[in-house]
Amino acid sequence: MSKKDYLAQAGVNTRLTKIGYEPRSFHGFVNPPVVHASTVLFPDAGTMERGDQAYTYGTRGTPTTDALASAMDALEGSAGTVVVPSGLVAVTLPFLACLSAGDHALVVDSVYGPTRRFCDTMLKRLGIEITYYDPMIGADIASLMQPNTRLVHTEAPGSNTFEMQDIPAIAKAAHAGGAVVTLDNTWATPLYFRPLEHGVDISIHAATKYPSGHSDTLIGTVSANEQWWPKLHDAFVTLGVCTSSEDAYTTLRGLRTMGVRLERHASSALSLARELETRAGVARVLHPALESFPGHALWKRDFSGSSGIFSIVLDIPDQARHKPAAHAFLDALQFFGLGYSWGGYQSLAVHVWLADRTVAKAPAEGPVIRLQIGLEDAEDLLADIDRGLAAVRSA
C-alpha cells in the first residue's frame, strides 16, 4: 500500500499530524511556509492571459491557505474547501453563493445569532425571503418547502440551547424540493460528525474555535461536495473574502492537536454536565450527550462524540430576576472568563440572549448560562460553578 492508503486507515490523531502538507514539497520542513502574497508573477504573457499556473493572485489562495484547505478536505471528505476570515463569513458565503433575489430559504430557529441578523438585514434587502423552522421538525420540513425554496440551513446542535436535528431526514426533504443543504458543524468538528456523509451539501466551520484552539485567530472554512463546489468557489473568488496566510498557518498548527484537545474538552464537559444535573439551583442541563436531553437519541445515532460547550438553565422562574441572577452567577466566577466565542483552552461563561427566536422559545425555568469548558482541571471548574450557584442563592 502507498502512504496515502495507510493514512486513510489510520486513527484520527495520526491523520491530524499528517494531512494538509507534505514536508518534502518544501525542503523537508515539518510545517508549511507562511507565504505572504498579493501579486504573483507570470513567466510570460500567454500564461498570464490564460491564468495557467497554480497561483495567480493572493486573494485566490496561497500554499499556506491551500494546506489548511487540503487538511479540511481530508477530514470532511469534500471536493473543495475555501478558507475565509471568520466563522460568520463561513456561514454567509454559501447563502450569497446559492441564493438570488426572489428565492426563499429555510433557516433553523436555534441558529447562531449573527447568522439571523444577516438573514434579517442583508438577505432581506437583497429580496430573499427567510422562514425560521423548529429544529426538531425532521422530515416534516417538507411542509415548509416552497416552489422557490433554494436553501435549507441547519445547525446541529443549535446555538446556546443545543437542540439536535435529524439531518438525514431534513436533507432528503430539502433535496426533493431542489434546495441545497448547509450545516454549521462548528460544535462537533469533522472528528465527531461528517455532514457530507449525512446528506449535507456544504459544511461550515468557525475554525476560530476548536481547529485554532487558542482564542487568538479569527478564521472560517467552508467545504462543499462535487455538485456545489464550483458555485462556492466562484462566490469566494468574486467576493474576495480571503484570509491571511498567518491565520491559516496558526489554524493548521492548532489542527494537529485538535483530537487530543477535544478529548479533554469533551470528557471534562460531560462529567461537569452530569454533576450539574444533581445541583440545586440548576433547572436543566442542555447537553446532547446526556441521556436526559430530548435530542440525545439523534446525537447518539449520528455523532461519534461531543465537544466542550453546553448550557445550564438556572432555576429562576421569575422573569424579572433572570438578569440579576445571571449577573450574580457570572460575577462570582474565578476560573471561568466572561467572554464570547469558545473552543479555546480557557473556560468561558456567558448569559445568552434568546429573545429573537420565533419558534424554538427560550427555556421557561430561568436564564440560560452557556459554559465553554476549557483545559483546566474539572474539579476546579466545578467548584467555580458552585461559587456561582451560591451567589445566586445569596442574591
UniProtKB/TrEMBL annotation:
The keyword Lyase applies. It comes from Pseudohoeflea coraliihabitans. Its EC number is 4.4.1.8. Keywords: Lyase, Pyridoxal phosphate. Its cofactor is pyridoxal 5'-phosphate. GO terms for molecular function: lyase activity. InterPro entries: Cys/Met-Metab_PyrdxlP-dep_enz (IPR000277), Cys_b_lyase_bac (IPR006233). Belongs to the trans-sulfuration enzymes family. The keyword Transit peptide does not apply. This is Cystathionine beta-lyase.
